[in-house]
Amino acid sequence: MRAAVAEGPRLLAHLADGPGLARHRRRHPAPGRVSVEQLALAAEAADLRGRGGAAFPFATKLRTAARRGAVVVVNISEGEPASRKDEVLATRRPHLILDGAVLAARALGARRVHLVLPGDKPMVGIRMTEALAEREGADVVEWRIDTADAGFVSGQARAVIELMSGRENLPVTAWAPEAVSGYRGRPTLLSNAETFAQLASIWAHGPDPATMLITRAGDTPAAKVGEVVIGASWGTVLSPMEIERPVLLGGYHGVWVPAGALKGRRIAAEDLAGLGARLGAGVVLPLPPGSCPVHETARIVSYLAGQSAGRCGPCKFGLPALALAVDAADRGDGPVERILELTGVLNGRGACAHPDGTVRLVASLQRWFGDELGFHQREECDYGDLEATG
C-alpha cells in the first residue's frame, strides 16, 4: 500500500524530476566542506529540529557529537505504522537525504555513514542502493547499510544502535544521549531521513520557508504525504469535515484533540501547546468515519502492547494489562478506574519511552473523551449515534 504524494515547496518540489542524481544536481549543489559551527548556525537559523518525533534541536545534537570518532547514522526505519514520510523521501528524494548525511559527516570528520533501512519496505532499500551506486566515488565517506526488523520499536534510537552493533534490534536502557555515547560508545549523530534532507536543503537554499512533511491517514488506504509550511492553517491538511471530528496528532504515541479544536489554529508547536499536543513525527490521523476515539484507542493500545521489547515489567506486564483495560472499557465490560490506575503506575517506569508514549495516548483519551468512556460503560456510543443520524 503506497501513500499518495503531493508536491511541496521544498523537499517535495519538482517531483517530476525523479530520484536520479543528474537532475538532482541541477537544483541542489554537491555538499562542500563545512565546519560544525557553520552547519549548526544554519540549522539554528531554520530552527531545525529532529523530525523523528522528539523535536530535539539538531544544532545542539550536532555540537554535542563534535568529538573525536564521531559516527553519523541516518535512520530510515520508520517503525510508526502511520508515518510514510521517510519512505516517500527515500524513494523520491534519496540524494537529498544522502547530501545531508555527507554534510554532517564532513563537519564532524566522520569517515563512515550508516544507513538504517526498514525491513518491511523493500522499495526503500532498492532506491537507496541505486542512489549510492550513482554516487560511487563522489563522496568522501564510506556507506554502510543495516536493515531493521519490522516492528514499532525497531526504529527507536537505542534499538538502532543495538542493530548496528550486531545485537537484537530492540531498545535497551541508556544512561547518556547517543550524541554523547552511542555506537560502540562513540559520539553518534543519529537522526531520521527527513532531518538530514532538511539539513541539505537549508544549507543549499537557506532557511525559508520552514517546512515539514505530514503523513495524513497513514495507516489507511487513503494515506497521503505532503509538505506544509510551518505556521500554515490546518485546513491545508484536513478537510472541513475532518476538522470537525477528533484527530490523533503525532502517531500512535501521540495525543487526541477534540472535534473542532484545530479550527483556527496553525501547524506550529506553540499553537498546539494549549491542547497538550505536539507535531511529533508529523502524523495526522483523523478519526475514521464509523468509529469513535475509544474504539480507535483500544485498537492502537492493543497493537502497542504487542510491539514492546518485553525487557522490563511495564512493557511485559503493564502494557498488556492496559490494553485489556481499554478494550474492556470500549466494550462496556470494565471500569474506567482500572485505566486510571494503570496509567498512573506505568508512566515514567519503562526502560525506554514505549510505555510513556502509550500512556500519553490513553491519557489524552481520558482528558478529552471522559464522557464517551462513560457512555461505553452503559454500552452506548455517542459517535455511533452520530453516524446513525447522519
Helices and strands, with pairings:
Blueprint lengths: L3 E2 L15 H7 L8 H10 L12 H8 L5 E5 L9 H8 L1 H15 L3 E7 L3 H13 L7 E7 L8 H8 L23 E5 H13 L5 E6 L7 E6 L10 H4 L3 E3 L5 E3 L11 H4 L10 E4 L6 H13 L7 H19 L4 H11 L7 H15 L1 H8 L4 H8 L1
Parallel strand pairs: 1-7, 2-3, 2-5, 3-4, 6-10
Antiparallel strand pairs: 6-7, 8-9, 8-10
Describe this structure in words.
The chain has 390 residues and is an alpha/beta fold. It has three domains: 202 residues, Rossmann fold, CATH 3.40.50; 56 residues, no CATH class; 97 residues, de novo design (two linked rop proteins) (Up-down Bundle), CATH 1.20.1440.230. The chain is built from 16 helices and ten strands. β8 and β9 form a beta hairpin. α4 packs parallel to α6, α12 runs antiparallel to α13 and α13 runs antiparallel to α14. The C terminus is likely disordered.
